[in-house]
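To start, one record:
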Amino acid sequence: MAAASRARRWSLAGKTALVTGGTKGIGRAIVEELAGFGVRVHTCSRHDADLQDCLRRWNAAGEGGGAAALVTGSVCDVSVRGDREALLAHHLLRDAAAGGGAAASVVNISSTAAFYAAPHLAVYSATKGGMNQLTRCLAAEWARDGVRVNAVEPGATRTDICDTSGVALGEKTRRRLADAGAMDRVPIRRIGEPEEVAAAVVFLCMPAASYITGQVICVDGGRTLL
């Protein structure tokens, strides 16, 4: 009996998830990690070419009923209201919501930029700080409805965000961040991998994390300790 209870706490089989921005970096790692745990995942991207490329790769990996076969996708810019409404009306998400009765989990992706100052990142850092407080407020508001809300704060992670996010970093800053010396303030002394961030996200979605809400969890190799 104890073994069965433990298995349920650490299982996401049969669950449904929406992952926005799931074709690159951390988002893609989250999609693949969730699918690996048997979750039906719907993801979206602003760029159809990126989405189709990922879907082809996931479908190829999922031939024969593999986990990647559980992933679907659509083109959507979540900053546009009409796109958001169309996304939430997707049949997979609508059917999941209609099931009712099951606890739900929201995991926002923040950044350690909310903790410390960095050149050229004023707007980015401010939005991440706002996301942290939004996470806490929604956790307090939605708890009565059985919805947990947490955030994960990645530190320096091996993604292409500097090339695709619109954050303008000068060449000097790029070289400084790429230099191994930039890891001097990271106790683990290396850059993070997207899969390590995805693992934290998946944990927060599990029944094993059912008493965790309103938290902002750093996945940064200890960077915010120093």
